[in-house]
Design goal:
Layout: H1 3-18, H2 21-25, E1 28-35, E2 43-44, H3 45-55, E3 63-73, E4 76-85, E5 90-99, E6 105-114
Parallel strand pairs: 1-6
Antiparallel strand pairs: 1-2, 3-4, 4-5, 5-6
Amino acid sequence: MTQRLDAWMAGYRRAWESNDPADIRSLFTDDAQYFTAPFAAPWVGHDGIVAGWLEAADQPGDTTFSWTAVVEHDATAVVTAETVYAGGPTYSNLWIIRFAPDGRAIEYTEWWMDQSEKN
């Protein structure tokens, strides 16, 4: 795993906990696309990403989070993760991050699955 992915993931968690627009913007290029669900239109650019993020924001301290890099190659990383909500569900996550040369994401895709729906 590279320092780039470690730094980006630490920044993502910082933004997740703070919901600070500056923390959120620091993760993404000015024209980045953030895909939240298959077939849904992405949040685009800093304004779109910050607005979408804050609309769906979790409260600080509401989750525990662990992650593992599955693939990291050139400018793309695939991450699996688990998000546990205090008093709530646990989610499995699959993320695809496409990096710009400066280490910010130019494209980010997240898929999450509610583990309570396991058979």
